[in-house]
Write the structure tokens for this entry.
Amino acid sequence: MAPTPIPTPTKRPYAATVPETIVGEAIQGNAVVIIQPGSSRLRIGRASDTFPVTIPHVISRKRKSTNSALPHHEDPVLPAVGKIEAAMAVHEKGLEDAEDKMWNCKTVIGAQWNQTLPEQTIAFNLRAKRSVLEEHSGVHWTNTTHQPEYLVGEEALYVKPNSGYNLHWPIRHGQLHLHPGIGGSLTAVLNDLETIWGSAISNQLEIPLKDLKHYRAVLVIPDMYDRWHVKELTSLLLTRLGFSAVFAHQVSVCATFGAGVNTACVVDVGDQKTSVCCIEDGIVIPSTRLCYNYGGSDITLAFYQMLKRYEFPYRRCNPHVRMDAIFLQGLKEQFCHLDLNSCKLQTQVFKVTHPEQNIWEYFLKLGDECMMAPLGIFTPEVFGITGVADVQKTARYYTDSSDPFDDDYLNQIQRRKGMKDSGVDSGKQDLDAADDSAINQSQQEDDLVKDDELNVGSLSKEAVEEKSNGNAGSSYERAGESGAFEEADQVLPLDQAILKSVERCEFDELKRKMINTVLVVGGGLMMPGAQQWLRHGLSTNIPAKYRCEPMEIITEPKEGDPRSTAWKGAAVMACLDTAQELWIRQKEWKQFGFRLLRERAPFIID
């Protein structure tokens, strides 16, 4: 056995990672749990299941005291509520741009858009009155008379307000929902996730938590992930829930497995974020990742804002109120579309079904707002969004004692390397072979994650501190590479984001492949006409040298639900023989920690 190296003052000794023997071990789909945690919904199930169980990703926790002096906390159902009101001028400009887009399109018969007159809509809606039906809504508040410590999913969502419970959504915009308020610490968020996932496993999948030592888990993570969060979630699954083995993979790669394609530009439009990423042969091209904080819930709020402009008959509606926010989500799903042929003045009926009351029925006149609200995906100003605040980036600075190649250690190595090359105190600054190896690995990873350097740069510790103090702009200016790709800091419409992502591919042939196979997943853009509108936006802006007909835009992979595509892909991946070497065992994790995740992960840890 080789002797353990004597550590230098800035280097930690570590033993080599020896994976447990797994050759010949058959993977049974019914013994693997697939977990896809979303901002709004949790999708969970066995790999052998046809469809996942889907529940609201929310928890209500009993307040420690009913003392009125203690604040009540409830995360809003629609996290962007109030954003449009705070940026009304931007919203108005976005509506003008959306109108221009509609004028530039043609119907199937070649006719132009026939704009509806607001006066007709307003006059009808002002006369509309509420009808109270004798039929009961059939919706009830959750029974809390036995004072449970927590409730999850639908039960949590229907806890009566002011009943002594705080409401928490542990994931926002695809990331852990860390904030300075009640339940916003890392410990509290992880406790909420453990409770929600554990409850879903025991109640929905009917797996006793004590038996999880016989099960494995696959965790679906965002393309633009925070490695610190990935470490904490992996630790949660292995050490707190007690799974025997775990591996994590990015949502876009899982989506390609679920759709049966190996190379594509994957667009994931969720409830609160929209991400674009190019996948080549099952591997993420890191420089192509883009992620923006807009999605289905922003369409809901834009739709409501336009309904108010046209005298929405349900005048008591308030998106800050939980039940009304849920109602507005349903109204969007019922009426919004991207089909120019259906854009005309229509009389519709909608019903308000709140808990413990009869159904309210309204007549409503609808016009162009049904299409202009979802057009915000192609004109983000409709959502009151502009600038850099809603662009997700991967922070480069990260320290972890269990990771021998964390940023703190590599920064020291690189600093010593520079001193050696410059001849300063060379006798004391010699680097051993392991240090050189670490530098080489760092340089290779930096090349592969070029996207983060372009968007964020190699942030120093001081730059990260500045960013946390709200001075992200100056950090970017210092860290960026001579201003290259500065436009990536701006929120882009979906069609432009796809073109920007594809443009970052290295070769023209690869760019041509990507632009001609676009895979759309997630539930944020599940509307009639979305495929045609996206095709129109891309075909009018795509460079001629990349044009290839027919352009394939997949919005219903294998004629299935695009919301479950990534989950199904993860289920397929978990049972492959080639996935054997990806599993991280509980015993190994306790010994090696994050370093093992860096070595085993099927994606580049950046």
